[in-house]
Amino acid sequence: MDRHKSTIKRHRQSLKRNERNRVVKSRMKTYIRKVEEATSKETAETALLEAISALDKTAGSRIIHRNKAARIKSRLTHLVASRFAS
Predict the structure, then answer these.
(1) Looking at the 3D structure of the chain, how many domains does it have?
(2) H or E element at residue 5
(3) What distance in Å separates the CA atoms of residue 85 and residue 75, rounded to the nearest whole number?
(4) Reduced to 3 states, what is the DSSP secondary structure of residue 48?
(5) What are 40-74's pLDDT values in tens digits?
(6) What predicted TM-score, i.e. pTM, was given to this entire model?
(7) Domain range for residue 34?
(8) Are 71 and 79 within 8 A, CB to CB?
(9) Angle subtended at Cα 38 by Cα 24 and Cα 64, rounded to the nearest 5 degrees
(10) Distance from C-alpha of 59 to C-alpha of 25, rounded to nearest angstrom
(11) Do 59 and 25 meet the contact criterion of CB atoms below 8 Å apart?
(12) Whole-Å CA distances, 53 to 3, 5, 10
């Protein structure tokens, strides 16, 4: 690693951002997992709303791309609709 002041600062900033992004992505994946593992229609729908909110926040802070968030939301919505269709 270089000894330039700017390089040292950029490295420090990247470590902070990496940690922050990892926490947000982990939380997002947890909400997605809750939707996939839901056993009743009510729990699936509430988990879906939480997951959509988490995805929107993650995409809004540009941690993931907005199109990826839209794709995941679409897949989860189709999953809940097909699993609990009656």
Answers:
(1) 1
(2) helix 5-36
(3) 15
(4) helix
(5) 999 999 999 999 999 999 999 999 999 999 999 99
(6) 0.86
(7) 5-83
(8) no
(9) 25
(10) 10
(11) no
(12) 42, 39, 31
